């Protein structure tokens, strides 16, 4: 379960990633849309959706890791 500090850090990290990455990760993880749905809604090829999701996840991980480690010390 995610605590309020982690949730706040996640929201902050989502706001920090570029809009194109933020858009697809919100549609996938929060709206639970399929890759095909995201591609249709955003007007992107599915490969681009997959690439952006991968890059968004990497950037979120890079942003969250120091925040989680720093918060647990």
Question: How would you characterize the overall build of this protein?
Answer:
The chain is mainly α. It has a domain at 31-58. 82% of the residues lie in helices and 0% in strands. The protein contains four helices and no strands. The protein has helices spanning 4-16, 19-30, 35-42, 46-72. Helix 1 (4-16) crosses helix 4, helix 2 crosses helix 4 (46-72) and helix 3 (35-42) crosses helix 4. It is elongated. The model has no long low-confidence stretch (mean pLDDT 90).
Summarize the structure.
The protein is mainly alpha-helical and 73 residues long. It is 82% helix and 0% strand.
Helix-and-strand structural type: mainly alpha
Question: How many angstroms does the end-to-end distance come to?
Answer: 19 Å
- Give the integer mean of the pLDDT values: 90
Number of separate helices: 4
Q: Which range does the strand content fall in? A: under 5%
What profile does the largest beta sheet have? Answer: none
Spans with pLDDT under 50 lasting ≥5 residues? none
Work out the number of β strands.
Answer: 0
Shape verdict: elongated
Rg, alpha carbons: 13 Å
**Helicity level, as a percent range?**
over 70%
The topology string of helices and strands comes to HHHH
């Amino acid at each position: 379960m995610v605590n309020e500090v982690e949730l706040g850090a996640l929201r902050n990290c989502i706001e920090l990633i570029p809009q194109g990455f933020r858009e697809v990760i919100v549609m996938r993880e929060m709206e639970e849309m399929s890759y095909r749905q995201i591609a249709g809604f955003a007007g992107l090829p599915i490969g681009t959706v997959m690439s952006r999701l991968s890059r968004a996840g990497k950037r979120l991980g890079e942003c969250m890791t120091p925040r989680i480690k720093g918060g647990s010390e």
